[in-house]
Amino acid sequence: MKTDVLIIGGGLAGLAAAHEVAANGYSAIIADESWSLGGQLRQQTQTIPDMPVPYAGLSGCQLAQTLAERLQYLPVQSLLQHDVIGVYADNSVGVACGGRMEKITPGCIIIATGAAESALPFRGWTLPGIMTIGAAQILMNRERIYPGKKAVVLGSSDMTLEIICQMRKLGIEVVALAEPSAALVATDETILQAFRASGIPVLLHSQPIAATGGSRVEEIILTSGATRRDTRYEVDLVCLDGGRHPVLETISALNCRLAFRKELGGWLPCYSASLETSISGIFVAGQTAGITSQAGVYRTGAIAGLGAVSYLKQNTAENTAEAHSAAKQAHWDGLMTLESARYPARWQARMAHIGI
Fold first, then answer.
1. Measured between alpha carbons, how far is 264 from 248 in angstroms, rounded to an integer?
2. Are 243 and 265 in contact (CB under 8 A)?
3. pTM: predicted TM-score of the whole model, two decimal places
4. Residues 151, 212: Cα–Cα separation, whole Å
């Protein structure tokens, strides 16, 4: 099977990249391990802020549907429930679905495999009812399952505070939020205001000591403050926000060079301003290029898609190349406006990372 561009990952970044590729007349295959396109958007019922005008005001679920639908009449093929299993000596990529395997020979590759959540291990943390905050969101918004009735949440990122608001709307009682640092991590003032209005107690300088229970968690013990005072909470749900890090298995299989940037989630591939990695013709997008907001994920997906188009059109006419360059710069400008204002350390790290 041949295609101009193979996009590994069908979330927000992959969908944005596929549109740029296909709208410029090239074929694309999206390979994704899930049963539908959209990635994390599928369980996000909140409005996704800072999106470009055509998508402003849409919830994550609506955005996933809209972005998938706009590919309907373009040369894009989706291989769902397909796992990338390796790269062959002839540079073709193997994908598997059940017991069936296919080889794809692409002109170039965009890796948009997203991010994984980091847990916060402590004594008893494997009890049922203890899960990452993202897992709780999936249960609530996608699977329509209540993860619990009474919760303690550990961590305070923008994503976590948003999910806490969703939990409260469903009637889940959040009895406390524990944050290990001296202040809440979230930076979005709208999200912070909504959280503060909830009146949920915040425990700063707080760490989990242990969780106890039988068939599921029944109690969590936290130590908080300068005096390290221990507090016990009777709960049936504990949500963990240990941060996120780029998923790198495919990047590693393709031998792309890595560098460590703490502000962008840790280890991630080196890339240029076109989001091309150290391997010619392999691009990255979304959280794979560094942890950012959903609007930032969209922007990097579009940049990678345009980068792939430029790679495939290396002998194109000058005016066409200039048009692609202008479109790419517009997305970089949007990403700069977003990250430099809300996540300045992240933006500075990204600028330092380009061209390593």
1. 13
2. yes
3. 0.91
4. 14
| Model confidence band, residue 317 (pLDDT cutoffs 50, 70, 90) | low
Average pLDDT over every residue of 265-284:
96
Residue 172 and residue 29: Cα distance in Å, rounded? 41
Token code pair at residue 93: 């990529």
The torsion of the CA quartet 265, 43, 293, 158, rounded to 10 degrees, works out to: -80
**Which of 145 and 318 is assigned the larger pLDDT?**
145
Starting at the edge strand found earlier in the chain, the sheet holding 237-240 runs 130-132, 237-240, 150-154, 173-179, 202-204
Structural domains of the chain sorted by starting position, each given as residue range(s) with its CATH number in brackets: 2-116+244-353 (3.50.50.60), 121-240 (3.50.50.60)
- Cα dihedral 22→37→187→135 (10° resolution): -160
Nearest to 176 by CA among 157, 209, 203, 155: 203
Half-sphere exposure of 175 (CA within 13 A, CB side): 17
**C-alpha to C-alpha distance for 255 and 53, rounded to whole angstroms:** 37
Q: Which of 293, 297, 294, 266 is nearest to 284 (CA)?
A: 297
